[in-house]
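Can't paste images in this forum, so I'm doing it all in text. The chain is below; anyone willing to post the predicted structure tokens underneath?
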Amino acid sequence: MKSRKLFVLMFAFFLGTLLVTSCKQSTENTTVNENEHPMENVTDNLKEAANDAGDVAKDAVNDVKEAGKEAMDAAGDAMDDMMDATDNIVKSGKEYTSAFICPMHCKDSGSDKAGKCPKCGMDYVKNEDEHAGHNH
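Text version of the structure:
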């Protein structure tokens, strides 16, 4: 607890020193109007610095958002490519390419003529794919 109080006092001293130094610099470098308080220059400088810092922070947040969007788009494209590749692999068996197929696409089912699936017993249905039953 003592170290915290000491830290707060040291920090307050530091800020006070910084403020006095800033006041001296701003009063030495500018002509002070009789109606203007010397602290106004310091306050204006602090406001300007705060606004600049805010602008930098906003720009950084926007950059991060944009990078996130680009990463999500790239991930979505990669997922689409992977799904397309998987569809081509999965749909290459005769359970997808025969003229008559099982509605459940049981592995190794399918025939050139109507019948029943040997795996699940369901009636084959006509394959509506335009390339079904063709080997070329």
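The chain has a mean pLDDT of 76. The chain has three helices and two strands.
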